[in-house]
What we know:
- The chain has 431 residues and is an alpha+beta fold.
- The chain has 2 domains: 6-174, no CATH class; 178-429, Aminoglycoside 3'-phosphotransferase, Chain: A, domain 2 (Alpha-Beta Complex).
- It has 12 helices and 16 strands.
- It has helices at residues 6-10, 80-87, 142-149, 182-195, 202-220, 234-259, 261-277, 326-345, 351-373, 377-380, 385-414, 420-429; strands at residues 23-31, 34-41, 44-53, 65-68, 71-75, 94-97, 104-110, 117-123, 127-132, 157-163, 166-173, 177-180, 230-231, 285-286, 298-301, 304-307.
- A 6-stranded antiparallel β-sheet has the order 6-10-11-9-8-7.
- Helix 6 runs antiparallel to helix 7 and helix 7 (261-277) crosses helix 12 (420-429).
- The radius of gyration is 22 Å and the shape is globular.
- The termini are far apart.
- 44% of the residues are buried.
- The mean pLDDT is 95.
Amino acid sequence: MFKLAQSWIKSRRWYPSSEEDFTIVEAWSLGRGVYAAILKAGSTLIYLPLKLSDEKPLDLPASSFLKTPLGYIYEAEFDLDYIVQVFEGLTPLRPRFLEGVGRPLTISPLAGETTNRLVKVVTNDSVLVYKAYRVLDPANREPCFLEYLNGKYAPKLYAEFYVSEVCAAVLMEYVEIEEDAGKAFFDCAETSLRTLQARVPVSATRRVAEFAAGLHYVMTKCEEQWCKPSRVTERDVETWRKRVLHYSRAVMSIARVLLGPDVAYELRARIERAMEVAPTMRGARKIATHQDLHLAQVVNADGKLLALDFEGEPARPERGGLEPAIRDIACVLRSLSYIAWHAGASDERKLAIAKEWVAKCSKEILDAYLSATAPHAEEIHGVHSEDLAEWAREVVEFWLVERGLYEAYYESKYRPKTALIPILGLTKLGP
């Protein structure tokens, strides 16, 4: 069945490269039309359970299933029988329950177009989210974060499910999301662009900044091997510089095609300036950071902020390592250009006011974050509190460029129509 669905499998967002065929390492028949396999595409291992059904799945978009002469094929996390089997330990996944969860009664898909599969599971005594990681990646630290944070700053973890020693899925609490943190910024950006007066959502900026500061402080207390803070070494700096060069090689050609040689030259100049800043980080502190903390990843649920998706960036060469906390703030600031663009900055006549709005919001967030972390500057950043502001404003530039290049690199691979947004962010829009 996996070979029958080969082209469809290779078109999935989680598949490493559509040009790379897969081999079947191991396969299982689990009954009731459910099959599971470990696939290998290049050096990447994938755990994939599939459901074969005579009935068309009515609650899935057309892109999420395949019609074949044998029936409809779709990922088995969208099948209640498979989820029950997972809970009962009857699949290749080895369960590790941290708390009792009851028996699954109903399921419903959540965000089916995301890289990983999210399913709402209602049991006889709780409402949970089952999150399946397609790629078996030992560097995925999300289960570690969720267990360590224990419901603070992130949803609570209830169970993990393993293939060999690699976590292939987690079960966490379901939270009613009121809105993401970006909503207040989007509304403010729309108003600013409509009135041609750059306003700042001050309370929202401070709330996000203080949330990030609190998360980072908690992570400085982690003593486990995957998260124990340490000092930035020369090797770290070189690794991060190489990462920037890796992204820039692909992005520079995209910038020339989309926006012309002048913008490409401007981008190259900013990259070179950022590379000069990198050595400033030697000797500072590195901690376990979120690594993808844009404003849509921070949500308001039950009156408090929570961060989602601690997997890190899916398209980066390496993930899961320790980095300066300021990089998370660079991720937050970089998301402002996306918000401004979708709020109306795509209208060239409003680009100047959008740039002013991004600059003002960036300053407010960074100032609030530095104020919140100043009492713990040594623990979080590894610098004296009196030196923090100057150091951070210099170092954040490196990470703004690194993150912006990553965004352009990622968009070019998965959403090429929006690749110009992060490039404009690094050149004409900011930060």
